[in-house]
C-alpha cells in the first residue's frame, strides 16, 4: 500500500509541476470544461483495451484514464475548490456507507437487493426528494445507454412487463407501426416510430440481460472487420471498391462471416 501511495503522490506532483511556473503551456491552459472530451475518449479506449484482452494495453489505458481525475483534482486544488485527498475520502466513505452488508450488519443476499439498497442509500445521502423515479440519469449518456437506465429505473417501481414474450410482442408492434409510417412517407412520424422501435428493442435487451450499447458496439466492430476483409481482399486482387460488383462484395462478406465462425 505504501508503494501505491507513493506512486499516486508522484503523479500528483508531476501534474502540479506541469501546470506550474516553467511547466507545460498546454497543460497549464486546460480547464474542467476543456478536458471533458478527453475523459470520454480515454474511457472508450479502456473499453477497447478490455475487448482486446491485453493486460499490457489495459494497464496503459487505465493510466491514461486515471490522468483525467488527477488533472481535474489539481485544477480544483489551484482554485481552492477541493483536493484529491477529499475526492478519495468521499469515495471511500461512499463505498463503506453503501455496502452495509459488508461493513455493517445488514443482510443482503442478491445483486438485485444491493442495487435497490444502493439507490435508497444514495437518495438518503444526497438528502434529496426526487421529483421522479427516473431522476438521477445523466443527461449526456449515449442514447441507448440512457434508454436502458431509464427503463431500469421505471422497472424498479413496478412499471414493467411481466414476461419477455410481452416485450417481444411490443417490438413487433413497433416494427409494424414504423412500416406503416414508412409506406405513408411521413418523415416526421417515421422518426418518432423509429425511436419507439429502438426503445422497445432496448427493453427487450434489458429483459434478456443484454446491454444494448455493448451489443451494438460489438456489431459495429464486426461490421468494420468484415468490411475491412472486403477492402483488403479486393486490394489484393487489384480491384477498387467502386469497380467491384455487389455480388463480389457480398461473397467476400459471407467469407468474412465464415472466418469469424471458425475463429480465424
Automatic annotation (TrEMBL):
Known EC number: 3.6.1.8
MF annotations from Gene Ontology: ATP diphosphatase activity
Superkingdom, taxonomy of origin: Bacteria
A Pfam family matched in the record: MazG
Catalyses which reaction(s): ATP + H2O = AMP + diphosphate + H(+)
Keyword Hydrolase tagged: yes
Record keyword NADP present: no
Gene3D superfamilies: MazG-like
Domain NTP pyrophosphohydrolase MazG-like stretches: 30-103, 168-227
EC category name: hydrolase
Keywords noted in UniProt: Hydrolase
InterPro entries (UniProt xref): MazG-like_dom, NTP-PPase_MazG-like_C, NTP-PPase_MazG-like_N, NTP_PyrPHydrolase_MazG
Gene Ontology terms: biological process: dATP catabolic process; dGTP catabolic process; dTTP catabolic process; dUTP catabolic process; response to stress; TTP catabolic process; UTP catabolic process
Family, per entry: Belongs to the nucleoside triphosphate pyrophosphohydrolase family.
Protein known as: Nucleoside triphosphate pyrophosphohydrolase
Source organism (scientific name): Geobacter metallireducens
Lineage of producing organism: Bacteria, Pseudomonadati, Thermodesulfobacteriota, Desulfuromonadia, Geobacterales
